[in-house]
User: Fold this.
Amino acid sequence: MKAGEPIPCPACEGDGEVFNAIEYDDSHFRECEACDGTGAVLDPWYRRHYLALASEAGAVGWPSSYREDLTVHDRRSCEERDPREPFAWILRECGTHIISVQPDPLDKAGNTGAGLIRDCFGPGSWGDRARYYTWDGSKLREVADHKALAAWVETTAASIARARKREHDERFARVA
Assistant:
């Protein structure tokens, strides 16, 4: 086998994966894109957010290093979330970041997704170029910059908070 040749998936004979000797050693084979090594091919509807990220990354040609951010971490994050759930995505020359869009703080320090984007992902923050995207539950859209992305996260998180409050109030009204 030569570096870069596809490795057929033994479980489903699906897409397989590409072995890249520069990025991976022999112990780090990625699972099949189609079945994640289980043999059961997932319905594309449940993978549509990851497929949108992977397609955009391929079109842009990034990340040129730390590809595992996309192929391992973003993929896992997408598998763990409902594809209808919004999130922010940052595609950099050297990696990617998915940021949750929730009204609740992301950590014990009280950081929100919008604050994290403003404080940590501005131009030059990581020493490389970046592009900023929103996933609204159905489509990946590029936004102008980290400020526009942070504003979208704030607005979307506030909308989620209002919907939660409305549901809570309706539930409480039915009980009363």
Observations:
- Residues 18-29 have pLDDT under 50 and may be disordered.
- Helices lie at 48-60, 68-80, 113-120, 146-175.
- Residues 167 and 173 are 10 Å apart (CA to CA).
- DSSP finds four helices and six strands in the chain.
